[in-house]
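Action item from last meeting closed. Structure (318 res):
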């Protein structure tokens, strides 16, 4: 049996750990492994490379992805999918492992619906894949953001200043919500909840009157841009806020223990699924147990926000 593996969409710390686990598990089980460069883009153009155990040596601790990745919107067209299927046929691939987030797994589902044997692995710093409590890269991105905001707090406190820190997450606020709680943000703004700039400015004034020395807003990029948010605050209340956009700092670096562990388990499990001929599933995790989520569910559902978590912040930022 010959399988292929690719990483797709935004790179996420732990992708390499998953590539290593897929490659070595498959080789152990007597399969041949081909790595596809640059995700679905390389799948369409046929950029395949045979993978040996040594090719994935010493990558467990590396951020990014040795297979390279790409955004490939053209893959969602009928022509793109057919080109990918032609490459898979040319290289005699029996099954494909796709390591990526929502957009990538929609691509996996398209291939699956065409009858090609695919297994997905949930991997994105946004942690917005339906049916899994966590995705590869989320924990590292969280830790990157938390470390950065802890440093920003030193300046905010020293200058008794308001800071608006914009974090990634695309159109979702899951990363911002978790990170906001872990840094003790005074206000968390996410796209899943409306916000009122007047109420926020009242809260800023109230908190400073209560003796607080800083006010940190953790703002999800999907809710507003930091600059616009700070401008609105200035306009409504005359309060000046410094801004910091964490951007790609969140996405790189060595994966944490949790991401290496998750990625390794997901990688091994994806090959076990192939062995059992159980295709059309995304490997994820729920309550510390690996789960298999139907690709169709991932493609058609939106992961809900944790209501309790959002409620919880109001007890803490007083
Ligand atoms: O999906 C991961 C992510 O980092 C999002 O949080 C962000 O909105 C997006 O990718 C940025 O995409 P790109 O790398 O294409 O600029």
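Sequence:
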């Amino acid at each position: 049996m010959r399988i292929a593996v690719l990483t797709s969409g935004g790179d996420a710390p732990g992708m390499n750990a998953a590539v290593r686990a897929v490659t070595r598990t498959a080789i152990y089980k007597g399969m041949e492994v081909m790595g596809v460069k640059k995700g679905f883009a390389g799948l369409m153009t046929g950029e395949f490379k045979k993978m040996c155990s040594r090719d994935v040596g010493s990558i467990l601790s590396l951020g990014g992805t040795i297979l390279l990745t790409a955004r490939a919107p053209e893959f969602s067209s009928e022509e793109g999918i057919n080109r990918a299927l032609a490459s898979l046929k040319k290289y005699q691939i029996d099954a494909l492992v796709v390591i990526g987030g929502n957009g990538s797994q929609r691509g996996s589902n398209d291939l699956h619906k065409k009858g090609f044997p695919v297994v997905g692995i949930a991997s994105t710093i946004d942690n917005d894949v339906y049916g899994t409590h966590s995705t590869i890269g989320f924990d590292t991105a969280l830790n990157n953001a938390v470390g950065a905001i802890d440093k920003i707090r030193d300046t905010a406190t020293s200058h008794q200043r308001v800071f608006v820190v914009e974090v990634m997450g695309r159109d979702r606020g899951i990363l911002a919500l978790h990170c906001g709680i872990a840094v003790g943000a005074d206000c968390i703004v996410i796209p899943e909840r409306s916000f009122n700039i007047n109420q926020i400015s009242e809260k800023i004034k109230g908190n400073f009157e209560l003796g607080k020395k800083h006010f940190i807003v953790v703002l999800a990029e999907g809710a507003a841009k930091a600059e616009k948010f700070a401008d609105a605050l200035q306009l409504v209340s005359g309060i000046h806020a410094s801004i910091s956009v964490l951007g790609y700092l969140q996405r790189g670096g060595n994966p944490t223990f949790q991401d290496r562990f998750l990625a390794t388990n997901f990688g091994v499990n994806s090959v076990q699924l192939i062995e059992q001929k159980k295709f059309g599933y995304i490997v994820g995790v729920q309550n510390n147990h690996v789960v298999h989520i139907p690709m169709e569910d991932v493609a058609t559902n939106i992961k809900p926000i944790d209501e309790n978590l959002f409620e919880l912040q109001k007890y803490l930022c007083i």
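Note appended to the action item: The first strand starts at residue 2 and ends at 7.
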